[in-house]
Structure formats: structure tokens, C-alpha cells
Amino acid sequence: MRSHHNNTFFDWNPWHGCSKISPGCAHCYVYRQDKMYGSTKSSIKASLNKDFSLPIQRRRDKSWKIPPGAMIMTCFTSDFLLEEADRWREEAWEIMRTRNDCTFYFFTKRIGRLPSVLPSDWGDGYDNVIIGCTAENQEMADMRLPIFIDLPIKHRSIVLAPLLGPVEIEKYLDHGIEEVSAGGESGADARICDYDWILDIRRQCMAHDIPFRFHQTGARFMKDGRLYMIKRSLQHAQAAKAGINYRIGEDMKPF
Ligand code: SF4
Residue 222 needs a FRET pair 20 to 30 A away by CA distance; which of 31, 236, 239, 240 works? Predict the structure, then answer.
């Protein structure tokens, strides 16, 4: 799905802050960044970032700061479909329309909100927007994925992270899913991710010929019944080392 971008990646975080809505949120990195890790708070008031307009900012020579063809990783310090951001999202869609020479990728735990917040010209989706639906366990997968596969979206991926148990998703895969990504949880209190769960998701993807990515091990990684503690700086590299990605191009940045 990513052949149309030129292998340059930019982060765009139009707003910051979120509220916890499901088990995968327990140790959310948005909170960690705020040094609130371990706090019992269940929400950080969403606020606009000063770089809200980043994708449409130009240099002095009038060229775009973010070059044409870039992949713009969108809203990774919040959830793009967060209720509190409803008042800003119309303008964010507008930015995506303006930069239709770039690809925007956001993922969400609030996919059920999408129909009510789409822009009027969305149609069956913008060509340059990839939406990832995240699920951390079977319950969330069975709650969110049936909704996800029925929505008008041009490019969809499933993100199984932080993976908290085995997940069976085969029945959702033949519905325009372009990629499945799975990974463990980071942080001091991370829950265990078992390699067998990862391998089983890969097996399901291969059976349906859907690209699969193992994007990070997480901090507590179980393999063959043995628990490994993996440093944050190595979690992506260790996953890559496993060499189990399936049909994934070299050009995609793991998140
Ligand atoms: S929805 Fe995402 S960003 Fe929001 S609290 Fe949960 S994990 Fe964090």
C-alpha cells in the first residue's frame, strides 16, 4: 500500500493528550512522555500543538517543509478520533486534502467514531489517508474490526498492539486489509508479549496473503517459555531481527 510514497517519514502531531478507553491504554506512551507514567489519571486534557499546521508550512523559498511524497505519521501523541479534538479535526482533514501529494497515516482505538466525524467530501475515502484500527486482545478485535471493515476507507491496516494475548482475526482479513502489524508493550510495567501469539497472527496473515509486520518486541518478551527483558532502544531492532515480516516493503518505518 505504500509504494506511492518516497520513503521519507515525518511526524505530525496536531494535538496532544488523550483519555484511556481500553486495556491497551493502561501504560500508554503518551502518558509516559508526560512523565505521568504510573499515575492513576485516565486522561490528559487534549491541547493543540503549536505545529498544528506543519504539513502546510513552507520554507522561505516557498517549497513545502515536508516534501512531496512523504509519509506523514499522524497524531501519535493522541488518538486522531478523540472526542475532545472534534473542534480541530475539520481543519486537519483540510490539511490532508491540501497535501494530497503526501500520505497520512493515523491509527485509532475509536474507529466507531469515524462515520460521525468524516469530512463531507470523504466519499469512499481519501486516496492519501491510511487508517489503522488498533486492538490489543480478542475482545477489542471483535468489537472494533467488524465496524472497521465496513467503513469507507481506501487504505486500512490492523495494528495489534500492545498485544496482550492470542488474537484470531482471520475472518476480518479479506476485507481490504493492506497490512497487519503486531507488537508488545513498552515501559517499566509492560505486560508480557508471547512470541507464539505473534507467530500465530503471522500464520493467519500468510494464509490470506496479507502483509504482516512484527514491529516491536515490547519490554517483556516471552519466547519458548523464557522471559526476556528488552531495552527500549532494542525493541524494534530485536523484532526486525526475528526476520518474520511477510510481504513488507523495506520502505515502511515501524512505529
Ligand atoms: S487511545 Fe491510544 S493515545 Fe489514547 S490513551 Fe489509549 S493508547 Fe493512549
Answer: 31
